[in-house]
Amino acid sequence: MVLRWYAVVSFALVAGYPLLSYDARTAPFLLVTLGAVPAVLIGVRRSPRTARLPWWLLLSGLVTFNAGNLVWLWMIYGEGRPGGDGSVAEPLFNLANLLLLAGSVVVVLRRGRRDVGGIIDSAITALALGGLLWDAVLLPQLTAVGTPMSTQAPMFIDVLVMAGSLGALLRISLVARRLPALWLLAGGTGAGLLGNVLSALILDPATGVRADWITMVYLVGYSLLGCAALHPSSALITLPGPPPADDLTPARLTFLGVMTALVPVVGGGRVILGLPTDGLLIAVGSAVVIPLVMVRVARLAGQRRRAEQALLRMATHDALTGLPNRAACLDRLETDLGRLRAEPDPATGRAPGGTGLAVLFTDLDGFKPVNDRLGHAAGDELLIAVATRLRACVREHDLVSRFGGDEFVIVCRDSDPAATVDAICARIREMVELPLTVAGETVRIGLSVGVAYADPAAGADEVIGRADLAMYAAKQSKSIGTLSLALA
After folding, report:
1. Where is each GGDEF domain found (predicted)?
2. CATH assignment at residue 348
């Protein structure tokens, strides 16, 4: 209800603005600009405490704008200062612009944190189009009417920054779709940008200053900002948005390349044709756009690297336990066997034989009854717990892998592998004696372990096969909750 009444009254004042005499327009102007302040204050109070920063920045910008408006009006109409130009208020207007833009940027950063690539693309496009607008349209007009550089510079910065912010806001608005507050905020930013453009292009022929009807465009921006703060969705605009697809297709890459080169190419073309151009635009535009492109490329490279790492991990690791899988185990074993063949014995200068590498093939005893009685989820939980405990029983450089089902293989390489196997088996025996809690129940399982010492001349499959046979031999004399051990 508050939003509806605010929108009706605010836009009615904007619509009636040109119908009033010049002197009578001050009242609706102040009602609209000042009325946006309590509207945004309500938006601050509605938002969660952790999401209030952008609204505080927007509120500070509005208060500063209104302070500048009051100073401007006093300079023009105030007693003893008739006919003042209000230029003393310009610092306040510039500060207000920065605060409003900072509020929009915070919204973009928080809402779009999962869509950084899309936001960068939108900002690059908006900056390029804003630079083109400045170089081809605004700068010639400002130069023709003799606008001083002190006025051009803030306007140039406003146009570029507002264009980039508007592009980013439109991006997160398109992704969100169901957050009207974002669209209203983007509309307010767009109205401010349009007002700045029109202020440079359209001057009152009688006074040489901005045509007064352009004030309506700024008033629309105030009204839209107030509506954005009062809309119920305003409390949600700083929550992270959904992660959209971020595929840099050839067409999209070509488009970004064109946008990146747009300002330098147009600026260079105007120089060739002898038309006025802005070297500051080319320098600043390049200084802003090129880092954005570099960040975009770096993010894409990082995404590709993470995707490759994820694929590699999926190919070499068990999805349930996180341990290396069968393929990774065989690959590690082949590598270690190759090292044994390559490393000569220091005393004899010959291969050290089967004294450097041991393989422990383990199988759970009692796993199937637990899996059948408590369900597959409980069975998975049991496998994860056993994998964690087995990993704690070995040294850092030893390999524990899930070979398949409830079978695990341990590969350890040492100058005295027999002593290492004894130490590992002692720790496994202690581990087996401890009960496990699965699906809220206490269960006990046993382990059968077969040990094979590697012959460098043998292959990985042969060593694994001998350890597997030894494990089955150990299982023949097994009872649940104990460790049985056999050597190949």
Report:
1. 355-488
2. 3.30.70.270
For residues 100-106, give the mean pLDDT.
Answer: 84
Q: Which domain holds residue 171?
A: 2-310
How many independent structural domains does the chain possess? 2
Single-letter amino acid, residue 162? M
Contact in structure between 457 and 438 (CB atoms under 8 Å): no
Query: Model confidence over 362-382: pLDDT tens digits?
Result: 998 888 888 888 888 888 898
For residue 319, being part of any structural domain is answered with no
Q: Is the dihedral of CA 451, 452, 453, 454 positive or negative?
A: negative
The answer to whether the predicted template modeling score (pTM) of the entire model surpasses 0.70 is no
Torsion region of 146: left, alpha or beta (phi above 0 gives left; psi -120 to 50 gives alpha): left
Contacts 24+ apart (CB under 8 A), 195-200: 195/221, 196/155, 196/158, 196/159, 196/162, 197/133, 197/137, 197/138, 197/159, 200/138, 200/141, 200/142, 200/147, 200/155
pLDDT-based confidence at residue 114 (cuts at 50, 70, 90): confident
Same domain for 144 and 227: yes
| Statement to judge: residues 128 and 271 lie in one domain | yes
